[in-house]
Amino acid sequence: MAAIRDPAFWHRFSIAVHNDEAHSSNNTRPELKHSDSWLERQQQKRSRRTCICWIFWFCFLVFVAALVITIIWLKTSGKLDHLKSPLAPRSGSNTM
After folding, report:
1. CB-count exposure of residue 79 (10 Å: 0-12, 13-18, 19+)
2. How many domains is the chain partitioned into structurally?
3. Which UniProt keywords apply (predicted)?
4. In a domain? residue 45
5. Coil, strand or helix: which one is 29?
6. Using alpha carbons only, what angle is made at residue 16 by residues 10 and 17, rounded to the nearest 5 degrees?
7. What is the Cα–Cα distance from 74 to 72, expressed in whole angstroms?
8. Which 8-state DSSP code applies to residue 18?
9. pLDDT tens profile 2-37
């Protein structure tokens, strides 16, 4: 095998390879879309989770408020007066 006698050969060769790699990598590498990034996906998940959390707690508070309003309305209208409380003492019970 014959050795290369020109001392500038390897320098020219490495520059040519470097230029070739730079040229080919620019053409074959796909563009990174903003929506394809991992960080963007994580931020979307966090935003969605925050929105769902706020909707859940709003619905829960509306439900509790409706329940309280219904109970207050039933007490003031007298509809709950005919129900006997299990904690109230019975009139015919024996106490010591």
Report:
1. exposed
2. 1
3. Membrane, Transmembrane, Transmembrane helix
4. yes
5. coil
6. 90
7. 5
8. H
9. 676 777 888 888 898 888 888 776 655 566 566 568
Q: For 30, list phi and psi in degrees, rounded to 5.
A: -75, 150
pTM of the shown model: 0.47
**Amino acid in position 92:** G
Taking residue 41's Cβ as centre, other Cβ atoms within 10 Å add up to 11
**CA-based radius of gyration for the chain:** 40
The pLDDT tens digits for 28-78 are 556 656 656 888 889 999 999 999 999 999 999 999 999 999 999 998 988
Helix (H), strand (E) at residue 19: helix 9-28
| Structural domain harbouring 68 | 41-79
Q: What is the H or E stretch that residue 52 is in? A: helix 38-77
Determine the residue type at 60.
Answer: F
Q: Is 54 inside any structural domain?
A: yes
d(CA 48, CA 42): 10
